[in-house]
Design a protein that fits this description.
This protein has helices at residues 47-54, 94-104, 112-122, 138-151, 168-185, 196-202, 234-255, and strands at residues 2-14, 20-30, 36-40, 62-69, 79-82, 156-160, 189-193, 205-209, 216-221. The protein has 256 residues and is α/β, with parallel strands linked by helices.
Length: 256
């Protein structure tokens, strides 16, 4: 059981001329426990910046990030990160990429074999464990990235547009698989996207951002259970249209 609470997040970036650019303007929301929370908004609005703050790669200028993780609240939660690019070590085999992450997270070696079997099976790549990433397709490489992030058994899984560079058929299949895996594992996850269909399908909670400087426009809990999220179903299409209209209004306001 884990969730994240973002309270009044403010973040500036320095420009080359010495001035400061406001990126996050008092952002506050909570993730869903054992579900996928989606950060949806226009490109460049600060979604990935906030994800990097949560990951500890950036620091806020004001505000705070509060984690609630498992029974031990005295330690930092375990995080898994799935990047837009897989960021694999091409000189290591598939299994070597996973064990590299396990070693980095100080997972006992005696657990490595079991975790490799479990998470490569979950993403459908058990038979490719001895293969090098360069010989695999883009979709397969992204599956390795997902397996690597899950193998450390994170309390919070971070995903930064992991399917945005894949073709339509591959990305749709990976979205379906990723949602199914997160549901099966009861995984708490945070996904960044500007793809409305992806948000409507994957998100149990959708946090809609304005254009930069980002503020929260609306937080929407998905009215459709996972089993009801059919890309061609009228209820799904109507929910997707609602999200799209909200985002389009933001873009229109930005261009005025």
């Amino acid at each position: 059981m884990a969730y994240v609470s973002v309270n009044g997040a403010v973040k500036y970036f320095s420009r080359e001329d010495g001035s400061e650019m406001l990126v996050l303007n008092g952002v506050s929301f909570e993730t869903r426990e054992q579900g996928i929370t989606v950060l949806l908004g226009p490109s460049g609005c600060g979604k990935s910046t906030l994800l990097n703050v949560i990951a500890g790669l950036e620091k806020l200028d004001r505000g705070e990030i509060e984690f609630r993780a498992s029974q031990d609240s005295t330690r930092e939660p375990r995080l898994g990160y799935v990047f837009q690019d897989p960021r694999l070590l091409n000189w290591k085999r598939v299994e070597g990429n996973l064990t590299f992450a396990l070693r980095g997270m100080k997972v006992p070696r005696r657990e490595w074999g079991q975790r490799l079997d479990k998470y490569l099976d979950l993403v459908g790549l058990s038979e490719f464990r001895r293969q090098y990433p360069l010989y695999l397709s883009g979709g397969m490489r992204q599956r390795i990235g997902l397996a690597r992030a899950l193998a450390v058994e994170p309390e919070l899984l971070l995903m930064d547009e992991p399917f945005s560079k894949l073709d339509q058929l591959t990305s749709r299949k990976l979205r379906q698989d990723a949602v199914g895996i997160c549901s099966r594992l009861k995984q708490t996850a945070l996904l960044v996207t500007h793809d409305v269909e992806e948000a409507a399908y994957m998100g149990d909670r959708i946090v809609i951002f304005s254009a930069r400087p980002a503020r929260i426009v609306e937080v929407v809990d998905n009215p459709l259970a996972l089993a009801e999220r059919d890309f061609d179903d009228v209820n799904f299409i109507q929910f997707k249209k609602k999200l799209l209209n909200t985002v389009l209004k933001l873009v229109e306001q930005e261009t005025r």
